[in-house]
Specification:
Blueprint: E1 6-12, E2 17-23, E3 29-36, E4 44-49, E5 55-58, H1 64-77, E6 87-94, E7 105-106, H2 109-117, H3 126-139, E8 145-149, H4 159-162, H5 168-173, H6 183-197, E9 205-211, E10 215-221, E11 224-228, H7 250-257, H8 263-272, H9 275-280, H10 285-295, H11 298-322, E12 327-331, H12 332-337, H13 339-346, H14 358-362, E13 369-370, E14 379-382, H15 387-399
Parallel strand pairs: 1-6, 6-8, 9-12, 12-14
Antiparallel strand pairs: 1-2, 2-3, 3-4, 4-5, 7-8, 9-10, 10-11, 13-14
Helix pairs in contact: 1-3, 10-11, 11-13
Bound molecules: adenosine-5'-diphosphate, acetylphosphate (UVW) and magnesium ion (MG).
Acetylphosphate binds near residues 150, 181 and 234.
Length: about 400
């Protein structure tokens, strides 16, 4: 293959930027890294070039623009700067695509305006995604900037699952419905699960549990998403690091009318100070598990139990939605690494045909692997997600449809 074959992928989060430079001919990761704690006193950049040593810098990064400039400098230091003629596109994770964006899209001014209009329904995410696009475009105005939307994979969810049972006219006017997020990951992992089992995705029903900082579940029937736990915004569903997941909407009225909290304060409470953080003062699952195991800490125990209980409720619900489940796939930071969470989420479900093998579950590996017992009717697997590769492939296919 000749010409430009590389894609730089930017995944800009609220306080971090993850990036990868991938050669699409053979999938080589030419560079991977992240900048975290953007806007704080002590930021950190970690950069790993292909075949080279990991470099780390601890210093402040005032904002996303400063972080992206630092990323560009690291890539340039490897001789793979953003000015490289081998770059075919820059792929951006964009969290909310609303109803309009159902596929990867080349960003124009008009597309950017639409992504900006969706900021109120993805306040933690879309602003950072927009900055990423603007900075990258400033550095390489000649290159296609491709937006790959978290919501896209969920556009197949049937109307009766996507609708909230509220007045249709009000819902339509304000575009209130279930959009769902982490779609790029749910799509990648459901297919990777089929590959692991040597099956065609079209004949497989899978429940995907994406458990990272944000967490969501999805039900995928024959490769098509039919239900997911996040809703209008990435707040609904599972208990997360700092987000509550499901609460009675009446909680909002109560906190406002009786508790005297403003709407902005309630937003901040539910999105940034709830979940594991709200229950145990700590949003990192590693620390929660450590406190449970080493200190038998009651707050950490409650947080872990609430997290697992919610997960089990969704597992049961999606089992009923699908009718037949072939596989359950655990993915993202917690799903890939936290064996105790996987064990607790699946314990005592023999009647549902779900039996996890404790020994297989305790194996540490970065590879996709089966953790259920041989006789388990439902295959339970750990399937590492790769949102960056999926974004790079979708972006490259869009700009080079022939490859
Ligand atoms: N070894 C581990 N055991 C338990 N939890 C882990 C482990 N490694 C990472 N995690 C958890 O994974 C979460 C972050 O997941 P990740 O997928 O990296 O998040 P995101 O991409 O949403 O920022 C954190 O809660 C972290 O504690
Ligand atoms: C949509 C979402 O929750 O993303 P993240 O897990 O990256 O916060
Ligand atoms: Mg993630």
């Amino acid at each position: 293959m000749t010409g430009a074959t590389r894609v730089l992928v930017l995944n800009a989060g609220s306080s971090s930027v993850k990036y990868q430079l991938i050669d699409m001919v053979d999938g080589t990761r030419l560079a991977a890294g992240l900048v975290e704690r953007i806007g704080e006193h002590a930021g950190r950049l970690v950069h790993t070039p292909h075949g080279g040593d990991r470099r780390e810098a601890v210093r402040p990064f005032a904002d996303h623009a400063a972080a992206l400039k630092a990323v560009a400098e690291e890539l340039a230091a490897d001789g793979r700067g953003l000015d490289s003629p081998e770059l075919a596109a820059i792929g951006h994770r964009v969290v909310h695509g609303g109803k309009r964006f159902t596929a990867p899209t080349v960003v124009t001014d008009e597309v950017l305006t639409e992504i900006r209009r969706l900021v109120p329904v993805a306040p933690l995410h879309n602003p950072a995604n927009i900055t990423g696009i603007e900075v990258a475009r400033g550095l390489r105005p000649d290159l296609p900037q491709v937006a790959v939307f978290d919501t896209a994979f969920h556009t197949t969810i049937p109307e009766h699952a996507a609708r909230y049972a509220i007045d249709t006219a009000v819902a339509d006017r304000h575009r209130v419905r279930r959009y769902g997020f982490h779609g790029t990951s749910h799509q990648y992992v459901s297919r990777a699960t089929a590959r692991l089992l040597g099956r065609d995705p079209a004949e497989l029903n899978v429940i995907v549990l994406h458990l990272g900082n944000g967490a969501s579940a999805s039900a995928v029937a024959g490769g098509v998403c039919v239900e997911t736990s996040m809703g209008l915004t990435p707040l609904e569903g599972l208990v997360m690091g700092t987000r509550s997941g499901d609460v009675d909407a009446g909680v909002v009225f109560h906190l406002h009318r009786v508790g005297g909290l403003s709407v902005d304060e309630i937003d901040d409470l539910l999105n940034r100070r709830s979940g594991l953080l709200g229950l145990a003062g700590e949003n990192d699952m590693r620390e929660i598990l450590r406190r449970v195991e080493e200190q038998d800490d009651p707050a950490a125990r409650l947080a872990l139990d609430a997290y697992v209980h919610r997960l089990r409720k969704y597992l049961g619900a999606y089992y009923a939605v699908l009718g037949r489940v072939d596989a359950i796939a655990f993915t993202a930071g917690v799903g890939e690494n936290a064996a105790p969470v996987r064990a607790a989420a699946t314990a005592g479900l023999t009647e549902l045909g779900i039996v996890v093998d404790p020994e297989l579950n305790s194996v540490r590996s970065t590879e996709a692997r089966v953790i259920s017992a041989e006789y388990s009717r439902v295959t339970v697997a750990v399937v590492p997600t790769d949102e960056e590769l999926e974004i790079a492939q979708q972006a490259f296919t869009l700009v080079h449809p022939s490859h």
